[in-house]
Amino acid sequence: MTSSTGKSYLIVGAGVFGVSTAYHLIQKYPNASVTIVDRDAYDATSRVAASWDWNKVVRADYDDLVYCKLGLEAQEVFLNDPLWQPYFHQTGIYWMCRSDYASEVIGNYKTMGREGELKAVPVAEAKEMYGGVFGDADIRDVKEVLVNRGSGWAAAGDCLVAVTRKALELGVKYVVAETESLAFSNDGTRCTGIKTSKGETLKADHIILSTGAYTPKLLELSAYEARKPDLSAGDRIVAGGITTGMTRLDAATYPTYAKMPVGVQGYTPEAGPFIGSLPPTKDRELKWWGQSIFTNEQEVLPGSTLSAPPAKPDYGQWEVSEKLREDISYANHVFYGKKTKDWKMEKHRICWDAFTTSADFIISPHAAALGLYVATCGNFHGWKFFPVLGKYIVQMLEGALEPELAQKWAWDRERPKDGKDNADYPRHQMKDFLDPVRQARL
Ligand SMILES: Cc1cc2nc3c(=O)[nH]c(=O)nc-3n(C[C@H](O)[C@H](O)[C@H](O)COP(=O)(O)OP(=O)(O)OC[C@H]3O[C@@H](n4cnc5c(N)ncnc54)[C@H](O)[C@@H]3O)c2cc1C
Protein backbone atom coordinates (compact mmCIF):
# COMPACT_ATOMS: atom_id res chain seq x y z
CA MET A 1 0.00 0.00 0.00
CA THR A 2 2.36 2.68 -1.16
CA SER A 3 1.76 5.43 -3.64
CA SER A 4 3.77 7.57 -6.02
CA THR A 5 4.37 10.04 -3.18
CA GLY A 6 5.66 7.21 -1.00
CA LYS A 7 3.20 8.11 1.74
CA SER A 8 0.86 5.40 2.92
CA TYR A 9 -1.69 5.50 5.72
CA LEU A 10 -3.83 2.74 7.17
CA ILE A 11 -6.58 4.05 9.40
CA VAL A 12 -8.35 1.45 11.51
CA GLY A 13 -11.86 2.64 12.36
CA ALA A 14 -14.38 4.59 10.30
CA GLY A 15 -15.88 6.72 13.04
CA VAL A 16 -15.42 10.49 13.17
CA PHE A 17 -11.76 10.28 14.18
CA GLY A 18 -10.81 7.89 11.37
CA VAL A 19 -12.94 9.38 8.60
CA SER A 20 -11.94 12.94 9.42
CA THR A 21 -8.29 11.87 9.28
CA ALA A 22 -8.76 10.23 5.88
CA TYR A 23 -10.66 13.23 4.52
CA HIS A 24 -8.00 15.72 5.62
CA LEU A 25 -5.11 13.49 4.50
CA ILE A 26 -6.42 12.94 0.98
CA GLN A 27 -7.03 16.65 0.52
CA LYS A 28 -3.50 17.48 1.66
CA TYR A 29 -1.86 14.58 -0.21
CA PRO A 30 -4.09 13.69 -3.19
CA ASN A 31 -1.59 11.08 -4.40
CA ALA A 32 -1.03 9.36 -1.09
CA SER A 33 -2.36 5.87 -0.36
CA VAL A 34 -5.02 6.32 2.32
CA THR A 35 -7.02 3.26 3.40
CA ILE A 36 -9.69 2.94 6.06
CA VAL A 37 -10.33 -0.49 7.53
CA ASP A 38 -13.50 -1.12 9.49
CA ARG A 39 -15.40 -4.23 10.53
CA ASP A 40 -18.60 -2.64 9.18
CA ALA A 41 -19.34 -1.24 5.73
CA TYR A 42 -19.68 2.54 5.94
CA ASP A 43 -23.27 2.39 4.63
CA ALA A 44 -24.36 -0.71 6.58
CA THR A 45 -27.82 -0.57 8.13
CA SER A 46 -26.38 -1.28 11.57
CA ARG A 47 -22.90 -0.31 12.75
CA VAL A 48 -21.12 -0.41 16.10
CA ALA A 49 -19.45 3.00 15.79
CA ALA A 50 -20.41 5.58 18.43
CA SER A 51 -20.22 8.06 15.56
CA TRP A 52 -23.01 6.27 13.71
CA ASP A 53 -26.16 7.51 15.40
CA TRP A 54 -29.43 9.22 14.58
CA ASN A 55 -28.22 12.51 15.95
CA LYS A 56 -25.58 14.13 18.12
CA VAL A 57 -25.28 17.42 19.95
CA VAL A 58 -23.08 19.98 18.21
CA ARG A 59 -22.02 22.71 20.59
CA ALA A 60 -19.10 24.78 21.75
CA ASP A 61 -20.40 25.38 25.28
CA TYR A 62 -17.35 24.05 27.11
CA ASP A 63 -15.78 25.19 30.34
CA ASP A 64 -12.46 24.02 28.84
CA LEU A 65 -11.21 26.74 26.49
CA VAL A 66 -9.48 24.27 24.14
CA TYR A 67 -12.71 22.40 23.36
CA CYS A 68 -14.67 25.66 23.27
CA LYS A 69 -12.37 26.96 20.51
CA LEU A 70 -12.41 23.63 18.71
CA GLY A 71 -16.21 23.52 18.90
CA LEU A 72 -16.51 26.99 17.39
CA GLU A 73 -14.07 26.03 14.64
CA ALA A 74 -16.10 22.92 13.81
CA GLN A 75 -19.35 24.90 13.89
CA GLU A 76 -18.00 27.28 11.23
CA VAL A 77 -17.58 24.29 8.92
CA PHE A 78 -21.06 22.97 9.70
CA LEU A 79 -22.51 26.39 8.92
CA ASN A 80 -20.55 27.27 5.79
CA ASP A 81 -19.30 24.18 3.96
CA PRO A 82 -21.90 22.66 1.57
CA LEU A 83 -20.69 19.14 2.40
CA TRP A 84 -21.58 19.55 6.09
CA GLN A 85 -24.38 22.13 6.03
CA PRO A 86 -27.31 19.78 5.30
CA TYR A 87 -26.70 17.80 8.49
CA PHE A 88 -26.50 20.63 11.02
CA HIS A 89 -29.60 22.02 12.75
CA GLN A 90 -28.85 25.19 14.70
CA THR A 91 -31.70 24.88 17.17
CA GLY A 92 -29.88 26.33 20.16
CA ILE A 93 -29.23 24.58 23.46
CA TYR A 94 -31.01 24.86 26.83
CA TRP A 95 -28.69 23.74 29.61
CA MET A 96 -30.00 23.46 33.17
CA CYS A 97 -26.92 24.18 35.29
CA ARG A 98 -26.41 23.02 38.86
CA SER A 99 -22.85 24.34 39.07
CA ASP A 100 -21.00 27.42 37.79
CA TYR A 101 -20.96 25.93 34.31
CA ALA A 102 -22.90 28.78 32.67
CA SER A 103 -20.55 31.51 33.89
CA GLU A 104 -17.46 29.46 32.96
CA VAL A 105 -18.75 28.89 29.43
CA ILE A 106 -19.78 32.53 29.06
CA GLY A 107 -16.26 33.50 30.19
CA ASN A 108 -14.76 31.35 27.42
CA TYR A 109 -17.08 32.81 24.79
CA LYS A 110 -16.05 36.28 25.99
CA THR A 111 -12.40 35.34 25.52
CA MET A 112 -13.31 34.31 21.98
CA GLY A 113 -15.24 37.56 21.37
CA ARG A 114 -18.50 35.64 20.91
CA GLU A 115 -20.42 36.50 24.08
CA GLY A 116 -23.43 37.81 22.12
CA GLU A 117 -24.48 34.24 21.29
CA LEU A 118 -25.35 32.95 24.74
CA LYS A 119 -26.70 34.01 28.11
CA ALA A 120 -27.51 32.70 31.57
CA VAL A 121 -31.24 32.94 32.16
CA PRO A 122 -32.93 32.85 35.60
CA VAL A 123 -34.87 29.61 36.05
CA ALA A 124 -38.35 31.17 36.26
CA GLU A 125 -37.80 33.10 33.04
CA ALA A 126 -36.27 30.09 31.28
CA LYS A 127 -39.35 27.96 32.03
CA GLU A 128 -41.34 30.14 29.66
CA MET A 129 -38.86 29.98 26.79
CA TYR A 130 -39.34 27.89 23.63
CA GLY A 131 -43.09 27.72 24.18
CA GLY A 132 -42.54 26.33 27.69
CA VAL A 133 -41.31 22.98 26.33
CA PHE A 134 -39.19 22.46 29.47
CA GLY A 135 -41.76 24.02 31.79
CA ASP A 136 -42.28 20.71 33.65
CA ALA A 137 -38.61 19.75 33.83
CA ASP A 138 -37.04 18.75 37.13
CA ILE A 139 -35.33 21.97 38.22
CA ARG A 140 -34.25 20.91 41.69
CA ASP A 141 -30.85 22.52 42.47
CA VAL A 142 -30.77 24.28 39.09
CA LYS A 143 -29.03 27.65 39.54
CA GLU A 144 -29.63 29.06 36.08
CA VAL A 145 -30.17 27.98 32.50
CA LEU A 146 -27.51 28.51 29.87
CA VAL A 147 -29.15 29.32 26.55
CA ASN A 148 -26.85 29.30 23.53
CA ARG A 149 -28.49 29.93 20.19
CA GLY A 150 -25.36 28.92 18.23
CA SER A 151 -25.50 25.26 19.32
CA GLY A 152 -27.70 22.51 17.94
CA TRP A 153 -27.51 18.97 16.64
CA ALA A 154 -26.43 17.01 13.58
CA ALA A 155 -27.89 14.03 11.76
CA ALA A 156 -24.85 12.03 12.78
CA GLY A 157 -25.06 8.79 10.80
CA ASP A 158 -26.12 10.49 7.58
CA CYS A 159 -23.28 12.99 7.92
CA LEU A 160 -20.75 10.21 8.59
CA VAL A 161 -21.84 8.37 5.46
CA ALA A 162 -21.73 11.54 3.33
CA VAL A 163 -18.23 12.52 4.42
CA THR A 164 -16.95 8.96 4.02
CA ARG A 165 -18.40 8.89 0.51
CA LYS A 166 -16.70 12.20 -0.27
CA ALA A 167 -13.36 10.87 1.01
CA LEU A 168 -13.76 7.79 -1.22
CA GLU A 169 -14.50 10.02 -4.23
CA LEU A 170 -11.25 11.85 -3.50
CA GLY A 171 -9.29 8.59 -3.56
CA VAL A 172 -9.48 7.03 -0.10
CA LYS A 173 -9.92 3.22 -0.10
CA TYR A 174 -12.29 1.41 2.28
CA VAL A 175 -11.73 -2.19 3.33
CA VAL A 176 -14.29 -4.12 5.36
CA ALA A 177 -12.31 -6.36 7.71
CA GLU A 178 -11.94 -7.15 11.38
CA THR A 179 -8.50 -6.14 12.65
CA GLU A 180 -7.29 -8.88 14.93
CA SER A 181 -3.88 -7.51 15.83
CA LEU A 182 -1.03 -5.30 14.71
CA ALA A 183 1.97 -6.38 12.64
CA PHE A 184 5.54 -5.37 13.44
CA SER A 185 8.97 -5.34 11.84
CA ASN A 186 11.21 -8.29 12.71
CA ASP A 187 13.01 -6.34 15.40
CA GLY A 188 9.64 -5.26 16.85
CA THR A 189 10.43 -1.56 16.82
CA ARG A 190 8.11 -0.50 13.98
CA CYS A 191 4.42 -1.15 13.39
CA THR A 192 4.11 -2.19 9.76
CA GLY A 193 0.42 -2.95 9.41
CA ILE A 194 -2.51 -4.96 10.68
CA LYS A 195 -3.59 -8.58 10.59
CA THR A 196 -7.21 -9.28 9.81
CA SER A 197 -9.39 -12.08 11.12
CA LYS A 198 -9.21 -13.69 7.66
CA GLY A 199 -5.43 -13.98 7.97
CA GLU A 200 -4.53 -11.14 5.61
CA THR A 201 -1.86 -8.58 6.44
CA LEU A 202 -2.35 -5.00 5.27
CA LYS A 203 0.70 -2.79 5.35
CA ALA A 204 1.44 0.93 5.39
CA ASP A 205 4.00 3.19 6.92
CA HIS A 206 1.55 5.01 9.16
CA ILE A 207 -0.96 2.94 11.16
CA ILE A 208 -3.59 5.04 12.91
CA LEU A 209 -5.90 3.45 15.47
CA SER A 210 -9.26 5.18 15.59
CA THR A 211 -11.00 2.17 17.01
CA GLY A 212 -13.06 3.86 19.72
CA ALA A 213 -14.16 1.65 22.59
CA TYR A 214 -12.40 -1.40 21.11
CA THR A 215 -8.96 0.24 21.31
CA PRO A 216 -7.82 -1.14 24.71
CA LYS A 217 -8.76 -4.70 23.69
CA LEU A 218 -7.03 -4.45 20.31
CA LEU A 219 -3.86 -3.15 21.95
CA GLU A 220 -3.99 -5.84 24.64
CA LEU A 221 -4.31 -8.66 22.09
CA SER A 222 -1.55 -7.14 19.97
CA ALA A 223 0.72 -6.71 23.00
CA TYR A 224 0.33 -10.39 23.80
CA GLU A 225 0.85 -11.61 20.27
CA ALA A 226 3.86 -9.39 19.58
CA ARG A 227 5.26 -9.90 23.08
CA LYS A 228 5.35 -6.15 23.49
CA PRO A 229 3.72 -5.40 26.86
CA ASP A 230 4.24 -1.63 26.40
CA LEU A 231 1.60 -1.64 23.67
CA SER A 232 -1.18 -2.07 26.24
CA ALA A 233 -3.33 0.94 27.01
CA GLY A 234 -3.12 0.17 30.73
CA ASP A 235 -5.20 2.70 32.64
CA ARG A 236 -5.06 5.32 29.87
CA ILE A 237 -8.26 4.22 28.09
CA VAL A 238 -11.47 2.70 29.42
CA ALA A 239 -14.38 1.48 27.29
CA GLY A 240 -17.72 2.74 28.57
CA GLY A 241 -21.29 2.18 27.45
CA ILE A 242 -24.45 4.25 27.76
CA THR A 243 -28.06 3.81 26.70
CA THR A 244 -29.98 5.91 24.22
CA GLY A 245 -33.66 5.67 23.43
CA MET A 246 -36.20 7.31 21.17
CA THR A 247 -39.89 7.92 20.90
CA ARG A 248 -41.77 8.72 17.72
CA LEU A 249 -44.05 11.73 18.17
CA ASP A 250 -47.48 11.54 16.62
CA ALA A 251 -48.57 14.22 14.19
CA ALA A 252 -50.59 16.05 16.84
CA THR A 253 -47.74 16.18 19.39
CA TYR A 254 -44.94 16.97 16.96
CA PRO A 255 -45.59 20.74 16.56
CA THR A 256 -44.99 21.33 20.31
CA TYR A 257 -41.47 19.91 20.01
CA ALA A 258 -40.60 20.73 16.41
CA LYS A 259 -38.71 23.94 17.23
CA MET A 260 -37.27 22.92 20.59
CA PRO A 261 -33.59 23.37 21.37
CA VAL A 262 -31.30 20.59 22.57
CA GLY A 263 -32.07 20.04 26.26
CA VAL A 264 -29.40 19.23 28.83
CA GLN A 265 -29.82 18.41 32.51
CA GLY A 266 -26.41 19.30 33.94
CA TYR A 267 -25.31 17.85 37.26
CA THR A 268 -22.19 18.05 39.38
CA PRO A 269 -19.71 15.13 39.05
CA GLU A 270 -20.83 13.95 42.51
CA ALA A 271 -24.48 13.80 41.38
CA GLY A 272 -23.88 12.16 37.99
CA PRO A 273 -23.39 12.70 34.28
CA PHE A 274 -25.39 15.20 32.29
CA ILE A 275 -28.51 13.85 30.58
CA GLY A 276 -29.67 15.04 27.17
CA SER A 277 -32.78 15.24 25.05
CA LEU A 278 -32.44 15.94 21.35
CA PRO A 279 -35.08 17.59 19.17
CA PRO A 280 -37.11 15.41 16.82
CA THR A 281 -35.47 14.18 13.63
CA LYS A 282 -37.12 14.39 10.23
CA ASP A 283 -38.93 11.15 11.16
CA ARG A 284 -40.36 12.92 14.26
CA GLU A 285 -38.16 10.86 16.59
CA LEU A 286 -37.10 12.49 19.83
CA LYS A 287 -34.03 11.04 21.56
CA TRP A 288 -32.55 10.89 25.08
CA TRP A 289 -29.43 9.45 26.58
CA GLY A 290 -29.46 7.99 30.06
CA GLN A 291 -27.55 8.65 33.25
CA SER A 292 -25.78 5.30 33.77
CA ILE A 293 -22.37 5.00 32.17
CA PHE A 294 -20.80 1.59 32.70
CA THR A 295 -17.80 -0.57 31.97
CA ASN A 296 -17.97 -4.16 30.80
CA GLU A 297 -15.07 -5.97 32.43
CA GLN A 298 -14.02 -9.15 30.66
CA GLU A 299 -11.03 -11.47 30.64
CA VAL A 300 -9.55 -10.92 27.17
CA LEU A 301 -6.55 -13.15 27.80
CA PRO A 302 -5.74 -15.47 30.68
CA GLY A 303 -5.08 -13.15 33.62
CA SER A 304 -5.82 -9.97 31.68
CA THR A 305 -9.09 -8.20 32.41
CA LEU A 306 -10.26 -4.95 30.90
CA SER A 307 -13.44 -3.16 29.86
CA ALA A 308 -14.56 -3.75 26.28
CA PRO A 309 -17.85 -3.85 24.41
CA PRO A 310 -19.56 -7.28 24.54
CA ALA A 311 -17.64 -9.72 22.34
CA LYS A 312 -20.31 -9.96 19.64
CA PRO A 313 -20.07 -8.66 16.08
CA ASP A 314 -22.60 -5.91 16.84
CA TYR A 315 -21.37 -5.36 20.44
CA GLY A 316 -24.83 -6.63 21.48
CA GLN A 317 -25.87 -3.00 21.13
CA TRP A 318 -29.56 -3.70 20.51
CA GLU A 319 -29.94 -6.00 23.55
CA VAL A 320 -30.99 -3.39 26.09
CA SER A 321 -32.10 -4.64 29.51
CA GLU A 322 -35.18 -3.43 31.37
CA LYS A 323 -33.02 -1.53 33.89
CA LEU A 324 -31.27 0.37 31.13
CA ARG A 325 -34.58 1.12 29.41
CA GLU A 326 -35.71 2.62 32.71
CA ASP A 327 -32.79 5.01 32.39
CA ILE A 328 -34.47 6.48 29.32
CA SER A 329 -37.87 6.69 31.02
CA TYR A 330 -36.14 8.56 33.84
CA ALA A 331 -34.55 10.93 31.32
CA ASN A 332 -37.99 11.52 29.80
CA HIS A 333 -39.32 12.37 33.26
CA VAL A 334 -36.60 14.90 34.21
CA PHE A 335 -37.15 16.82 30.97
CA TYR A 336 -40.90 16.74 30.47
CA GLY A 337 -42.46 15.65 33.78
CA LYS A 338 -45.64 13.59 34.00
CA LYS A 339 -47.27 14.71 30.78
CA THR A 340 -45.11 12.50 28.59
CA LYS A 341 -45.00 9.42 30.83
CA ASP A 342 -47.10 7.37 28.41
CA TRP A 343 -44.89 7.96 25.42
CA LYS A 344 -43.89 4.65 23.92
CA MET A 345 -40.12 4.23 23.93
CA GLU A 346 -38.57 2.66 20.86
CA LYS A 347 -35.16 1.98 19.35
CA HIS A 348 -33.09 1.53 22.48
CA ARG A 349 -29.39 1.18 21.81
CA ILE A 350 -26.22 0.81 23.90
CA CYS A 351 -23.47 2.98 22.50
CA TRP A 352 -19.77 2.43 23.38
CA ASP A 353 -17.05 5.04 23.52
CA ALA A 354 -13.47 5.31 24.80
CA PHE A 355 -12.81 7.39 27.93
CA THR A 356 -9.78 8.93 29.63
CA THR A 357 -9.93 10.19 33.23
CA SER A 358 -9.31 13.78 32.07
CA ALA A 359 -11.99 13.58 29.32
CA ASP A 360 -9.30 14.48 26.75
CA PHE A 361 -8.82 12.77 23.41
CA ILE A 362 -5.67 10.80 22.69
CA ILE A 363 -4.19 12.09 19.44
CA SER A 364 -0.62 10.94 19.63
CA PRO A 365 2.14 8.67 18.42
CA HIS A 366 2.05 5.45 20.42
CA ALA A 367 5.18 5.37 22.57
CA ALA A 368 5.84 1.64 22.06
CA ALA A 369 6.35 1.49 18.27
CA LEU A 370 7.37 3.70 15.39
CA GLY A 371 4.70 4.21 12.75
CA LEU A 372 1.85 3.55 15.21
CA TYR A 373 -0.53 6.36 16.20
CA VAL A 374 -3.65 6.60 18.33
CA ALA A 375 -6.47 9.01 17.47
CA THR A 376 -9.62 8.32 19.46
CA CYS A 377 -11.11 8.65 22.98
CA GLY A 378 -14.13 10.80 22.25
CA ASN A 379 -15.15 10.63 25.93
CA PHE A 380 -18.78 10.85 24.99
CA HIS A 381 -18.24 14.29 23.42
CA GLY A 382 -16.12 13.73 20.31
CA TRP A 383 -18.67 13.75 17.48
CA LYS A 384 -19.15 17.52 17.20
CA PHE A 385 -15.50 18.00 16.23
CA PHE A 386 -15.83 15.72 13.19
CA PRO A 387 -15.10 18.46 10.59
CA VAL A 388 -11.80 19.48 12.20
CA LEU A 389 -10.46 16.42 14.04
CA GLY A 390 -8.52 15.27 10.99
CA LYS A 391 -6.75 18.59 10.65
CA TYR A 392 -5.25 18.13 14.11
CA ILE A 393 -4.58 14.43 13.60
CA VAL A 394 -2.61 15.22 10.42
CA GLN A 395 -0.66 17.84 12.39
CA MET A 396 0.09 15.18 14.99
CA LEU A 397 1.31 12.75 12.30
CA GLU A 398 3.68 15.45 11.08
CA GLY A 399 4.90 16.48 14.53
CA ALA A 400 3.33 19.90 13.97
CA LEU A 401 0.70 19.94 16.69
CA GLU A 402 0.88 23.02 18.95
CA PRO A 403 2.72 22.06 22.14
CA GLU A 404 -0.37 22.70 24.30
CA LEU A 405 -2.45 20.27 22.23
CA ALA A 406 0.36 17.73 21.85
CA GLN A 407 0.65 17.65 25.63
CA LYS A 408 -3.11 17.57 26.27
CA TRP A 409 -3.71 14.69 23.85
CA ALA A 410 -0.48 12.76 24.48
CA TRP A 411 -0.36 8.99 24.92
CA ASP A 412 1.85 9.50 27.94
CA ARG A 413 0.87 12.39 30.14
CA GLU A 414 -0.11 12.93 33.69
CA ARG A 415 -3.82 12.21 34.09
CA PRO A 416 -6.07 12.27 37.12
CA LYS A 417 -5.79 8.93 38.95
CA ASP A 418 -9.50 8.32 38.63
CA GLY A 419 -12.46 9.90 36.87
CA LYS A 420 -14.10 11.36 39.96
CA ASP A 421 -14.01 14.92 38.57
CA ASN A 422 -15.15 13.75 35.13
CA ALA A 423 -18.96 13.53 35.37
CA ASP A 424 -19.17 11.21 32.35
CA TYR A 425 -16.51 8.73 33.43
CA PRO A 426 -18.00 5.22 33.81
CA ARG A 427 -19.08 4.66 37.40
CA HIS A 428 -21.11 1.47 37.00
CA GLN A 429 -20.68 -2.05 35.70
CA MET A 430 -22.83 -3.43 32.93
CA LYS A 431 -23.42 -6.72 34.76
CA ASP A 432 -25.40 -4.84 37.41
CA PHE A 433 -27.93 -3.75 34.80
CA LEU A 434 -28.59 -7.06 33.07
CA ASP A 435 -31.99 -8.70 33.12
CA PRO A 436 -32.18 -11.55 35.67
CA VAL A 437 -32.53 -14.23 32.97
CA ARG A 438 -29.56 -13.01 31.00
CA GLN A 439 -27.51 -12.69 34.18
CA ALA A 440 -28.33 -16.28 35.12
CA ARG A 441 -26.98 -17.44 31.76
CA LEU A 442 -23.57 -15.81 32.26
C1 LIG B 1 -24.81 7.49 23.39
C2 LIG B 1 -23.77 8.44 22.96
C3 LIG B 1 -24.14 9.76 22.72
C4 LIG B 1 -23.18 10.68 22.32
N1 LIG B 1 -23.57 11.94 22.09
C5 LIG B 1 -22.68 12.83 21.62
C6 LIG B 1 -23.11 14.14 21.28
O1 LIG B 1 -24.29 14.45 21.40
N2 LIG B 1 -22.19 15.01 20.78
C7 LIG B 1 -20.88 14.65 20.64
O2 LIG B 1 -20.09 15.49 20.22
N3 LIG B 1 -20.45 13.41 20.96
C8 LIG B 1 -21.31 12.51 21.43
N4 LIG B 1 -20.91 11.23 21.73
C9 LIG B 1 -19.50 10.87 21.60
C10 LIG B 1 -19.11 10.51 20.20
O3 LIG B 1 -20.12 9.75 19.57
C11 LIG B 1 -17.80 9.75 20.21
O4 LIG B 1 -16.87 10.41 21.05
C12 LIG B 1 -17.20 9.60 18.84
O5 LIG B 1 -18.18 9.24 17.92
C13 LIG B 1 -16.07 8.56 18.88
O6 LIG B 1 -15.55 8.42 17.58
P1 LIG B 1 -14.42 7.34 17.25
O7 LIG B 1 -14.08 7.56 15.83
O8 LIG B 1 -13.31 7.43 18.27
O9 LIG B 1 -15.07 5.93 17.53
P2 LIG B 1 -16.30 5.16 16.84
O10 LIG B 1 -17.26 6.08 16.24
O11 LIG B 1 -16.80 4.19 17.84
O12 LIG B 1 -15.61 4.38 15.66
C14 LIG B 1 -14.71 3.33 15.87
C15 LIG B 1 -14.76 2.45 14.64
O13 LIG B 1 -13.71 1.49 14.75
C16 LIG B 1 -14.18 0.26 14.22
N5 LIG B 1 -13.38 -0.80 14.84
C17 LIG B 1 -13.10 -0.96 16.15
N6 LIG B 1 -12.33 -2.04 16.33
C18 LIG B 1 -12.12 -2.57 15.10
C19 LIG B 1 -11.41 -3.71 14.65
N7 LIG B 1 -10.75 -4.51 15.51
N8 LIG B 1 -11.39 -3.97 13.33
C20 LIG B 1 -12.04 -3.16 12.45
N9 LIG B 1 -12.76 -2.08 12.83
C21 LIG B 1 -12.79 -1.80 14.15
C22 LIG B 1 -15.64 0.21 14.62
O14 LIG B 1 -16.35 -0.67 13.78
C23 LIG B 1 -16.05 1.67 14.47
O15 LIG B 1 -16.61 1.91 13.20
C24 LIG B 1 -21.83 10.28 22.17
C25 LIG B 1 -21.47 8.96 22.39
C26 LIG B 1 -22.40 8.05 22.79
C27 LIG B 1 -21.97 6.65 23.06
Automatic annotation (TrEMBL):
Single annotated GO MF: flavin adenine dinucleotide binding
Q: Does the keyword Nucleotide-binding apply?
A: no
Q: Does the keyword Cytoplasm apply?
A: no
Q: Where is composition skewed (Basic and acidic residues) in this entry?
A: 412-435
Q: Report the cofactors.
A: FAD
Q: Which residue windows are coiled coil?
A: none
List, alphabetically, the Gene3D superfamilies matched. Answer: D-Amino Acid Oxidase, subunit A, domain 2, FAD/NAD(P)-binding domain
Give the keywords, sorted.
FAD, Flavoprotein, Oxidoreductase
Source organism superkingdom: Eukaryota
Boundaries of every FAD dependent oxidoreductase domain copy: 9-396
Q: List the residue ranges of the region (Disordered).
A: 412-442
Q: Which InterPro entries match?
A: FAD-dep_OxRdtase, FAD/NAD-bd_sf, MTOX
Q: Which family does the record assign?
A: Belongs to the MSOX/MTOX family.
The name of this protein is FAD dependent oxidoreductase domain-containing protein
